[in-house]
Design goal:
The complex is a heterodimer of chains A (about 290) and B (about 325). By secondary structure, chain A is an all-alpha fold. Helices cover about 80% and strands about 0% of the residues of chain A. Chain A is globular. Classes of the chains: A mainly alpha (about 290), B alpha/beta (about 325).
Chain lengths: ~290, ~325
């Protein structure tokens, strides 16, 4: 009897999880359709990111000319790979953030925001679906960018520990879901300028996380903030795994902060998002704009 | 008016496709059986106000000058009950509170006072339970305009837990029933006329098999033929699919043709509620007419304004003024 009841509960749980996964997939499929229909925009962003990454990485390639010093090929390679990783992760973070916040902005613009928010979908499923597509999208664009970079610069990656790099990317992506969820609040609450406000979060991450330079060059008080940015650990972990071939075990000092950031930021993001949604419903902000 | 009613029940377009059967997977058989124990909609003394700030309200310490926040009473002490399978119309001019009322029922707004229950579920406390039972068509057909009807409706169907294969079949059947040609189903919505977009919006609502359907001026701006198509469809929804319908409109003929009862809303308050015939009788007697009052006369008698005359404030503008 007890066994039968347990089986029924397990079946109901599985069925509920499958239903939620189907709802989450709605956001992935919809964003894929939108990406296909707005292919020209996509082409513009890919081009922009690649040109931007090339411009930054050429700084490394020209380090000798800029400084008037002689750099060994190994040292130049290290500098080029350092910036190439920085630009790649910056593209990844930017695409994820843009995708999550623009989803809300676009829904407001099209007026579909009311229909999405009155559908029987939990916010966890909503944000999971939205962020899952954002991560896949970011990953694909970053891969394209790295391929093009490879054609411009000779990068010696023979020591790279790719498995460890993947672990760092996965651990870091959990935190990005949390931060993306928090940034999505801005276009929900601020009908016209929310998307622009979300750029501030991105800009701060760019400044404090060591995207193009080690965080040790920052003033001491700014370095405090560097240590709470998950991007700092992502970048450090990726550089150590790709440039120095460090293993997962050796990268643990970067992995555990990323996991803690993820464990804290995802529930925190959802909590804040739910509170912001209630506020929006009390004040009438969930509506079309445009 | 009786002639119009007959026209509505006899579609002029030959019908080759019937509406698909109601899908019940969202709601269990026990839940469906329990629905009859509750009113479809019970609105009790609901009020909703919005604070409209001045343009410089972000300035601190009163530096915004004389521009003080303005409180707009969008809905004020409204009570309304709808029984299952009823079609009830809420008649009011622009800015009278109709859309705010629909948003309150749709879980998009939280009432400041009073309560709204859909089949016994409170919209503020049991959001998800309410959302499974309702859907809405608004005056503006809101879609991802670059996407096709199929892509938009598939997204909606998935959100309500409908499997993709079943959804595709239903989408094709419903759109065909609404007169949308198969070759348009895969084209971007932005290339369709407003009438066709509104039909797709109605298809979206029907696709999720709502037990309570909220129609917020669904035929405003449509040509007479599209309007008639929509009205036939609404009646069919109630007659063959057990739907309860709340319809807001400022079209007198539409209200009389479709609704079992009509509530007149003015300045956020329900000022009259009865059958169309009951309202006519009351106003005929009140004005001492020697012929039955028209619905326009009824509306003017209760609101003191012509139905085409807007309220001073547009309720749409009263919401969400923080940019």
């Amino acid at each position: 009897m007890l066994q039968a009841r347990g089986l029924a509960v397990a079946r109901a749980t599985l069925s509920g999880a499958r239903a939620e996964a189907g709802k989450g997939y709605a956001f992935i499929e919809r964003n894929w359709y939108l990406t296909k229909r707005y292919w020209a925009w996509e082409a513009v962003w890919v081009t922009y990111n690649i040109v931007n990454a090339l411009s930054v990485t050429f700084i490394a390639a020209s380090a000798g000319q800029i400084s008037g010093q002689r750099f060994s090929p190994a040292l130049l390679n290290q500098f080029v790979v350092y910036l190439a990783i920085g630009t790649a992760i910056w593209t990844y973070i930017s695409v994820v953030f843009d995708q999550v916040t623009e989803t809300v902005t676009m829904e407001r613009w099209e007026g579909t925001i009311e229909y999405t928010f009155m559908a029987p979908v939990s916010r966890l499923t909503h944000m999971f679906g939205t962020c899952a597509f954002a991560l896949l999208h970011g990953f694909a664009l970053t891969a394209v960018q790295l391929l093009v970079m490879g054609a411009f610069f000779h990068m010696d990656l023979s020591h790279a520990a790719w498995g460890a790099a993947v672990v760092i990317m996965l651990a870091g992506s959990i935190s990005l879901i949390g931060l993306g969820t928090i940034s999505a609040i801005l276009p929900m609450l601020f009908t016209e300028r929310g998307a622009q406000m979300a750029y501030i979060i991105r800009a701060i991450i760019l400044l404090i996380s060591g995207v193009y330079y080690p965080i040790t060059v920052l003033p001491g008080w700014l370095q405090v903030f560097s240590h709470i940015s998950p991007a700092t650990y992502m970048l450090e972990g990726l550089r150590l795994s790709i440039q120095q071939g460090k293993s997962v075990v050796a990268l643990w000092p970067d992995i555990w902060p990323l996991l803690i950031c993820g464990v804290v930021s995802v529930p925190l993001g959802l909590y804040i998002f739910n509170r912001a949604e209630r506020f929006a419903k009390r004040t009438g902000r969930l509506k079309r704009n445009g | 008016m009786a002639i119009l009613k007959d026209e509505l029940t006899t579609p002029t377009r030959p019908e080759t496709v019937t509406l698909p059967e109601r899908r019940t997977s969202l709601i269990s058989a026990a839940e469906l059986a329990d629905l009859d124990n509750h009113d479809a909609l019970a609105i009790r003394r609901v009020s909703k106000r919005f604070v409209k700030h001045g343009g410089r309200s972000w300035l601190p310490f009163g530096l915004a000058g004389a521009r003080r926040p303005k409180v707009v009473r969008a809905v004020e002490d409204v009570s309304l009950t709808i029984r299952r399978r009823e079609i009830v119309g809420v008649l009011g001019s622009n800015g009278s509170g109709k859309s705010t009322l629909i948003r309150l029922i749709s879980t998009l707004l939280i009432p400041d006072a009073g309560s709204v229950e859909v089949f016994g579920h409170d919209v503020a406390r049991e959001e998800r339970a309410v959302q499974r039972l309702i859907n809405r068509v608004s005056v503006e057909a809101a879609f991802f305009r670059k996407l096709s009807p199929m892509e938009n409706l598939l997204y909606s169907a998935r959100l309500y837990g409908l499997p993709a294969r079943e959804a595709r079949e239903q989408i094709n059947a419903i759109l065909a029933r609404l007169g949308i040609k198969p070759d348009r189903i895969g084209q971007p919505l932005e290339s369709m006329s407003r009438g066709m977009q509104q039909k797709v919006a109605i298809a979206r609502a029907f696709l999720t098999a709502p037990i309570l359907l909220l129609l917020d001026e669904p035929t405003t701006g449509l040509d007479p033929r599209s309007k008639q198509d929509v009205q036939v469809f609404v009646r069919e929804l109630r007659d063959t699919h057990d739907a309860t319908i709340l319809l807001t409109t400022h079209d007198m003929d539409e209200a009389e043709a479709l609704c079992d009862r009509i509530a007149i809303i003015d300045g956020g308050r329900i000022v009259a509620e009865d059958t169309a015939e009951g309202l006519r009788r009351a106003v005929t007697a009140r004005l001492g007419l020697d012929r039955p009052a028209t619905l326009t006369e009824v509306f003017m008698a209760y609101t003191g304004r012509d139905w085409e005359q807007d309220e001073p404030e547009d309720e749409e503008d009263n919401e969400a003024d923080d940019k």
